[in-house]
Design a protein that fits this description.
The longest helix is centred in the first third of the chain and has 19 residues. Helix 3 crosses helix 4 and helix 3 packs antiparallel against helix 7. By secondary structure, the chain is of the alpha/beta class. 36% of the residues lie in helices and 17% in strands. The protein has a six-stranded mixed β-sheet with strand order 1-2-3-4-5-6, with helices on both faces. Strands 10, 11, 12, 14, 15 and 16 form a six-stranded parallel β-sheet that branches. The protein folds into two domains: 245 residues, 2-Layer Sandwich (Heat Shock Protein 90); 190 residues, Glycoside hydrolase/deacetylase (TIM Barrel, Alpha-Beta Barrel), CATH 3.20.20.370. The protein contains 18 helices and 17 strands. It binds nickel (II) ion (NI). Nickel (II) ion binds next to loops.
Length: 521
């Protein structure tokens, strides 16, 4: 199974990551050099990761994220962030060529208090890998950006000044040569100091190097960095800071990854690790920052202590579709003789779909239904033999749906969550008698009527929007034949293919509720 090979790969990568980056080989051995605590997943043998990767003739996109449990906030957050990035990449695809986007994570720290991840984004159209870190606070159960490692915005400025001092004092970098934000912060501090000397009552004059945007960012505001939203806004203001890709050093301070070109003599490799000593780091870190540092320095807790129990093996298909371009493809009236071919097509795009099956057919194709569920698709209830529920008594509706639920559960091990009434036909009796949310659709491909592959694909491609539920019938070969074009077209537009459960998941669905789509407005 794919999972095994992924875990093996992870272990090899972890073993390499465990070799601490030492300064011995770096440039001038008299210069200070941090030992960064890197990828420590080897100590977490039960950490599952999942890879979603799609290769087409116009692009290759892939991301890998840790599955910390089906609905763990960090898995959800990281995966959603990666899926958003993928959509942006696909929406900007050039006409020609076949660019690639790869996204991966490394574990930086793990304890019951905090889990830190480093996100690495490699875009074949860009020069460098973009990296940043994300932190899960076990106390508040929130996912926070790197800025939350600092006490407040003043501390954030101070950390940049500390870095400027190290570069000037230990690496002999002139103030005017300090790179990027470090240079801006240092120049601003100098200007302020001069202004204080010359006219103590006056406002500090903005420095020549600061653009309008930076002038807004300086002097520091008073955002609450324990609040994900505020900390996120501050992270955006400081997006190009080297501290965005912060690591802790084995000494208990910070190890700041910098471009060796900006720090002469500091390294010959691809990155220079500049230390901020523990005493200085402690002045600026927040409570979360301390916890993150301790988790990194002490190695990490056992998977049990992290509460990554049985759920950690879950497929983790959950995406936050309130934030994403999601679409739910649904297939009714099967299983049938074309369903397996359809499952193969969906697998090529890592697409998850929903199958509203008839209970009476489940026993005819048990392996197909079992495979459908095993591959992460949703199997929903479409009644026993396609009777119009609106013409039945409450008791009749209940019996029909229960019998179908049991047939599905007998094969998949899981009772269906959602149901779709045949013909979309329902009334108050149906709504109160069903124990399921009722799922209709907003895009009807009319496939049962046209039996025209081109027309079916045309409907799906032209009418789908973020949050759409698209109706097909997999008992028709003409419908199944349309799916490769539908998948490629929607993928090319940056859509993510999710189950109905995932489309509505975070907004919630109640039994008896009728939904046609997951659009938010
Ligand atoms: Ni039907």
């Amino acid at each position: 199974m794919a999972d095994t090979s992924l875990r093996r790969k992870l272990t090899v990568g972890s073993a390499l990551g465990l070799i601490l980056v030492t300064g011995c080989q770096a440039g001038d051995s008299t210069l200070p050099y941090a030992e960064a605590i890197g990828f420590i997943s080897a100590d977490l043998p039960d950490l599952h990761t999942r890879t979603v990767s799609v290769e087409t003739d116009h692009s290759t996109v892939g991301y890998r994220y840790p599955v910390l449990g089906e609905t763990h906030p960090l898995s959800l957050h990281v995966r959603t962030a990666m899926a958003e990035r993928q959509t942006a990449f696909l929406e900007e695809l050039p006409e020609g060529g076949s660019p690639e986007l790869h996204q991966d994570t490394e574990l930086l720290a793990a304890s019951p208090d905090v889990i830190g991840l480093r996100l690495n984004v490699t875009d074949s159209g860009a020069e460098d890998t973009e990296s940043s870190t994300l932190w899960y606070d076990g106390g508040s159960e929130q996912v926070l950006p790197w800025t939350s490692l600092f006490r407040d915005e003043q501390a954030l400025v101070q950390a940049h000044l500390d870095l400027a001092d190290v570069l000037r004092d230990d690496y002999d970098v002139a103030t005017e040569d300090l790179p990027g934000r470090i240079g801006e912060v240092a120049a601003h501090a100098e200007t302020e100091a001069e202004a204080d000397e010359e006219e103590p009552q006056g406002e500090p004059t903005p420095t020549a190097v600061a653009s309008d945007e930076e002038r807004e960012a300086l002097p520091p505001g008073d955002s609450d960095l324990t609040d994900p939203e505020q900390a996120g806004e501050v992270a955006e203001l400081w997006a190009d800071s080297p501290l965005a890709d912060l690591a802790f050093s084995t000494a208990g301070g910070l190890a700041v990854r910098m471009d060796p070109a900006d720090v002469p003599g500091a390294g010959r490799g691809e990155e220079a690790l500049v230390p901020i000593e523990p005493e200085q780091a402690e002045e600026t870190l927040s409570e979360l920052g301390y916890q993150a540092r301790d988790a990194a320095v002490q190695g990490n807790a056992s998977p049990d202590a992290l509460d990554l129990g049985a759920e950690a093996t879950a497929e983790g298909t959950t995406l936050d579709c309130a934030e994403l371009k999601c679409v739910a493809l649904t297939f009714d009236d099967g299983p049938g003789e074309h369903t397996e071919a359809l499952l193969d097509m969906l697998a090529d795009y890592e697409a998850k779909a929903t199958f509203y099956v008839l209970g009476s057919l489940v026993g005819e194709f048990p392996e197909v239904v079992e495979r459908t569920a095993a591959e992460g698709h949703e199997v929903g209830n479409h009644t026993w033999k396609h009777d119009d529920l609106a013409g039945m008594s409450a008791e009749g509706v209940r019996e029909d749906l229960a019998r179908t639920d049991e047939a599905i559960e007998a094969v998949t091990g899981e009772a269906p969550v959602t149901m779709r009434p045949p013909y979309g036909s329902l009334n108050a009796t149906v709504r109160s008698a069903t124990g399921h949310p009722l799922i209709l659709w907003d895009v009807d491909t009319m496939d049962w009527q046209s039996r025209d592959t081109k027309a079916v694909a045309g409907h799906a491609l032209s009418e789908s929007q973020a949050g759409s539920v698209v109706l097909f019938h997999d008992i028709h070969k003409s419908s199944v034949d349309a799916i490769p074009e539908v998948l490629d077209g929607l993928h090319r537009q940056g859509y993510h293919f999710v189950t109905v459960k995932d489309l509505f998941g975070l907004q919630g669905m109640e039994p008896g509720e009728v939904h046609t789509d997951g659009r938010l407005n």
